[in-house]
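Practice record 12: protein with 7,8-dihydro-7,7-dimethyl-6-hydroxypterin.
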Amino acid sequence: MTQQAYLGLGANLADPEQQLQEALARLTRHEGIELLACSSFYRSRPLGPQDQDDFINAVCRISTSLSPLDLLDRLQAIEQAQGRQRSRPWGPRTLDIDLLFYADLVLHSERLTLPHPRIAERAFVLYPLRELLPDGCLPDGRRLDELEPAVRGQSIYPWPQPD
Ligand code: ROI
């Protein structure tokens, strides 16, 4: 059986746009994962310490035959394969892949919380996610488009910037 899942991608080190492209290529090649769609890319000011470069962010939809924890293992392996550096908490990173939604599963386990607990606070997740899930809701019934006003102060731009 396959399930649809949504992944948030982010990077701000070592050619971030290339890091995202490479991650998408790795997902495409992965057995048990099919890449169905990807949002456009966004450039966003870091949430957290400001003494770091802007991030490039995107969200993709996959279908997968993997369980949530097996999928998480593979995503972490891709982060490692791309030389994930993480100098400090909330600091710069070569590649982050967050599991945002896995079907409509609600899960609170030690390793994994689903949906991702910070979707509602992050423009860099909400903006690309709404491209793929315009009618999306959180399990508590809040619509993703209702959440956008709360993150409107966060700096985020389409990437590459239109002329
Ligand atoms: N800030 C932005 N803009 N984008 C991210 O992907 C991102 N990821 C993080 C922290 C450090 C919280 N800030 C971020 O992990």
